């Protein structure tokens, strides 16, 4: 059974879908830590209610990215994860930190990478007139949203779509893609 740590910054719906999937008796992994960089992240309540160990490393308490990442590394190392899943974790990680977890850290991103790394992915897909949008699970490397792709899912862009309606359609796919990719990796 692989030990999985999940990093969040907010709502945590992807974290929830991972934890729910890991409840299956035949799933070869278990959630050992939910870690947020924001004290108020909604996902922390789910972790607490589920009895999953959870922690906050508040980026506002650190003067530099290096100091924040060192604190993050300390908390993560103590939990001894085999795999780290970034799930709506909205901090850029330093290359030094990323290298320490090379090959063990994955992320879900709301676009069909290599299209639209970074923010505002749905609006950018709409502005480009794309016929489809989607999400990608990939390994984390120092360059943002550029690591090897593990899996993708796509949805159609429909007439009248806004960034909000498209986001909802993609998020539904995220919730099955991420657990499927984690299972594959395990
Ligand atoms: C998800 O759509 C995820 O793909 C995206 O943030 C959302 C988090 O929602 N991630 C990124 O944009 C990463 N740069 P959640 O907290 O409900 O999982």
TrEMBL record:
Q: Where is the active site?
A: 109
Report the residue ranges that make up the Formyl transferase N-terminal domain in this protein: 2-181
Pathway membership, UniProt: Purine metabolism; IMP biosynthesis via de novo pathway; N(2)-formyl-N(1)-(5-phospho-D-ribosyl)glycinamide from N(1)-(5-phospho-D-ribosyl)glycinamide (10-formyl THF route): step 1/1
What UniProt keywords apply to this chain's record, in alphabetical order? Purine biosynthesis, Transferase
Question: Location of site Raises pKa of active site His?
Answer: 145
What parts of the sequence cross the membrane? none
Q: Where does N(1)-(5-phospho-beta-D-ribosyl)glycinamide bind?
A: 12-14
Gene3D superfamilies named among the record's database cross-references: Formyl transferase, N-terminal domain
Q: What does this protein do?
A: Catalyzes the transfer of a formyl group from 10-formyltetrahydrofolate to 5-phospho-ribosyl-glycinamide (GAR), producing 5-phospho-ribosyl-N-formylglycinamide (FGAR) and tetrahydrofolate.
Family matches, as NCBIfam families: PurN (TIGR00639)
Protein name, please? Phosphoribosylglycinamide formyltransferase
Its source organism is Hyphobacterium lacteum
